[in-house]
Amino acid sequence: MIIESHDPSNPVVLCLHGGPGMPQFFMNDTYPTGLERDFTMFWWEQRGAGMSYSRNIPDDSMTLSQMIADTIEVADYLRERFGQDRIILLGHSWGSFLGIQVAEAAPDRFIAYVGMAQVSHQLRSEVLAHDLMMSAYEALGNTRMVSGLAAAPVTMQDGLSPEYMPWLPS
């Protein structure tokens, strides 16, 4: 957990990073946001990501429902610590998917939700990306990439193939 603020009485922003597993605070040195001037920024490295990583985290605890519960618990901690009834929830990419689930589950804890690179239908996005890559590589005549993508289908009916997402169990 990393907190940045010029004035801790400013509105609290709970940042949900992308990934899953891609904390973003480290990019602040290269691409500073300056948000800490107007907000109390709370950069939280979610369960299993960044400084929260541990080999001892049980695989069965890495679920969406657990991530939602974790986020609500962190939000409650921030609300109490900074004496704010409601805080701002900001989600980027995967964090935007998590954020809308959290905002729906606990709307009383948030004054606003902000989504960046909002995920709304991930499977449809993957299908479109796969189709676009196939077309682009076909136009370039890159038969190696075309055959690789053809062997790694992504469809609305069958979802993501293990070949397309190598980190998924087969």
The dominant shape is: elongated
- According to DSSP, the number of beta strands is 7
Q: What would CATH call the class of the largest domain?
A: Alpha Beta
The largest pleated sheet is described as: 5 strands, mixed
Averaged pLDDT, please? 87
- Computed Rg: 19 Å
| Sequence of strands across the biggest β-sheet | 1-3-2-4-5
CATH architecture of the largest domain: 3-Layer(aba) Sandwich
Protein described:
The protein is α/β, with parallel strands linked by helices and about 170 residues long. It has 2 domains: about 1-115, Alpha/Beta hydrolase fold, catalytic domain (Rossmann fold, 3-Layer(aba) Sandwich); about 120-160, no CATH class. It contains 4 helices and 7 strands; from the N terminus they run βββαβαβααββ. It has helices at about 65-80, 95-105, 120-140, 145-150, and strands at about 1-5, 10-15, 40-45, 85-90, 110-115, 155, 160. A 5-stranded mixed beta sheet has the order 1-3-2-4-5. Helix 3 packs antiparallel against helix 4. The longest helix has 19 residues, at about 120-140. The protein is elongated. It starts with a strand and ends in a 10-residue tail after the last strand. The model has no long low-confidence stretch (mean pLDDT about 85).
